[in-house]
Amino acid sequence: MKGFLTLSLLAVFGLASAVAGHISMPHTHKTLLIDHCSKYVLIATRGIREAQSDLPGAFKTTINNVLFRVSGSRVVNTVYPTNATLIDQPVQIDYARTSVGVNWIRDFLNRETQVCPDQSYALLGFSEGAIINSFVLDTYQGTGVDKRIKAVLFAGNPFHTPNLTGNVDENGGNLTHGAEGESISAAPAGVRTSSESGRVLDFCFLGDTICNKAGSGPEEIHHSYGKTPSVQRIGTDFLIRHLGGK
Description:
Pfam families: Cutinase (PF01083)
Protein name: Cutinase
Keywords: Disulfide bond, Hydrolase, Signal
Signal peptide: 1-20
Number of helices: 9
GO molecular function: carboxylic ester hydrolase activity
Shape: globular
């Protein structure tokens, strides 16, 4: 999974209109429609090899914990074309695919903040999902929408930026606090600003070469977040603290 393509924010958004006309995204409109407003919405963005119907494997337990413990919360899956069959094959980021995810979240937030002005949000992203959410954060810096985003949770982030508040290893320690993700050169500035506010938690396993390019672990480590109790416990506590649960 080494070798994420270097991205630019311009490249991601520049392809948006072309993508819309050529990629079929079933159920997108249905997903955007809701019957009522919630207090909190978790926007979950999965990795490149996870099926559209799945929650991000890195956060399934965390999400279920939050839904149980935070009254008025719900979850939506970001709609973008991943490929669950790409097991054991090298995968690179595709500009068109990524732009679909970025624009889906933007459309969702723009609509929801108008229809449900008191609703707050948490962005959750694993692997490529963290890249998508990083661009979303950058888009809304200094806006009213940004103020409604109360928490950001990443794991296996190719944009992992060293020495930011919220950088933790799988045990909540600082072993990867200074780690650089393999695509750090394309990371937008907005994540740094959000991290300084204390609302970002960015998990990186010591041996995960996607978020720690100096690491040397096998690829399986990149897919270990969902099976690691400390990640789920710390992630749950972080989201509940920022979303006002118990």
